[in-house]
Amino acid sequence: MNAKYGNLYAGSTIKSGTYPGQTTDNKNTVVWNILVSNAKMSDQDAYNIVKTIFDKKPDLVAVHSEAKNFSLENQVKDYSPIPWHPGAIKYMTEHGVKM
Fold this sequence. Notes:
Shape: globular
Number of helices: 4
Number of strands: 2
Oligomer: single chain
CATH class of the largest domain: Alpha Beta
């Protein structure tokens, strides 16, 4: 699928016990959500948006539980079909994400 549609799909695992009766890990394919901006967005604005998402994660989780899955470990540049914004790259690099 990546060859046809670009680097948007990745392997993942639903851990055993996630669902009632699930006794083993389940390998699956996931599509990562991406946040897209206009190329004219300033580096500082992009940096601040990414910083807010990670610094305010508990507030986001309170609004929607899926936000609990936001993690720096899941930020993989190769899973994006479009280039990352320099402001996002700066934040990720400062927080140990390998570029």
